[in-house]
Known about the structure:
By secondary structure, the chain is an all-alpha fold.
Amino acid sequence: MDAREVKANGFSKALKEASKNFATRTRPTKRMRFSAFMGQSFRLYQETYYGQLEGHLAVRVWREAEAALRDINGYPGVHAWWRTRSHWFSEDLRSSLISYSRQPTLQGCLANQ
């Protein structure tokens, strides 16, 4: 998907809207787009997580991915999405996200569960 397609199909608008409020104010088609994007993103994070855990990934690469994951977790819509989709992911990733939410300076996905 190139930049024209992203702009033309309203993906960026759907992402922005759903990241603020996934559950209530977002139309179903936008929720679906957002959910598909988040699902793919979290799959990549999960694979990166396992890569670093198994020693196949440089620590600096994991730290960069982890920083992005923490930032994404700060959006209320991501929290709402995670509460409905966390069962799609490994217990290891879910536990890792719980540990983020327990850190006082972070707003992890599970902070409001």
